[in-house]
Design goal:
With 285 residues, the protein is mostly helical. It has a domain of 140 residues: Serine Threonine Protein Phosphatase 5, Tetratricopeptide repeat (Alpha Horseshoe), CATH 1.25.40. The chain is 80% helix and 0% strand. Helix 8 runs antiparallel to helix 9. It is globular and about 60 Å long.
Length: 285
């Protein structure tokens, strides 16, 4: 009996390793951004092991990375299956919920919107501090029409974010106002933040973005962005390469192409791989 038990254990051990190795290899391909190879490997695994939640999840991520709108629905299906197989996994639920909302936005599907909302609310129950889920729900309740939308529910999720990360909450709110072209409110919110904290790196960046998109308050934005270069970027904020690029955006908006070019070059000196500055320089020629 002991020998049979040992043999059984060894068989299970090596069987498990054999099953795990292809998935590990497929995940490595995904992380190396070898998308066609990762997709082929993950499709093979999900066919052989339809109950493999992790393989379903990574196949969804791989399809999503292609940025092919036609594959979004398929990606959502794989995230859904992963979440059904492991309903307590917040990461799987978040991708299912968030991408269901993305799908709803593209297809005007009320069903997808409701499924996305429900999945994200499950994420919050599993992990009340999941800020990305709170943000997605804030956006959902803020943008959805009545009776699905709710200003009070949107505010509740923003408040949960603000309790844990005020800069993140301010970024979400001001970005939302800017994206909806409510520039007056965006500038007002930035001014309120800067009145309390004149050296708020994040508020200065957000002010700059609103100025670039609106074409308003460009001189104030330029002064604020230059001030950012004298401050230490917060841990989650973009660095000086981003700031120089934004300065270039403002200068270009003001019609000063030589100064804009110098700013983009300074951005690349700060980070040679900063592609947005490279693109801006190419367009400036």
């Amino acid at each position: 009996m002991p020998r049979r038990t040992l043999a059984t254990c060894l068989a299970l051990l090596f069987t498990g390793t054999a099953l795990a190795a292809p998935l590990d290899d497929a995940i490595a391909l995904y992380k190396d951004k070898k998308n066609p190879e990762a997709r082929a490997a993950l499709e093979t695994i999900t066919t052989a092991e339809p109950q493999n939640a992790e393989a379903c999840y990574y196949l969804g991520l791989t399809l999503l990375r292609t940025r092919d709108p036609k594959l979004l629905e398929s990606a959502v299906g794989w995230f859904k299956k992963a979440a059904e197989l492991q309903p307590e996994n917040a990461a799987y639920l978040f991708e299912y919920g968030g991408n269901s909302l993305n799908l709803a936005g593209k297809t005007r599907s009320l069903g997808a919107a409701n499924r996305g909302r429900d999945a994200l609310e499950k994420v919050i129950k599993l992990d009340p501090a999941h800020l990305n889920a709170h943000e997605a729900l804030y956006q959902f309740f803020d943008q959805a029409p009545w009776p699905i939308g709710s200003g009070s529910k949107a505010k509740a999720h923003l408040d949960e974010i603000r309790k844990r990360d005020p800069d993140y909450a301010n970024t979400i709110l001001i970005t939302t106002k800017t994206n909806s072209k409510n520039y007056t409110e965006a500038f007002k919110l930035c001014d309120e933040l800067l009145a309390k904290t004149p050296e708020s790196y994040v508020a200065l960046l957000l002010y700059g973005r609103a100025a670039i998109l609106s074409g308003q308050n460009l001189d104030s934005a330029l002064a604020g962005l230059k001030k950012c270069l004298t401050l230490t970027p917060p841990p989650k904020a973009p660095g000086y390469a981003f700031v120089h690029w934004r300065i270039g955006n403002v200068l270009e908006k003001k019609g000063d192409k030589p100064a804009a070019r110098a700013a983009y070059e300074a951005s690349l000196q700060a980070d040679t791989n900063f592609s947005m500055a490279t693109t801006a320089l190419e367009k400036l020629k």
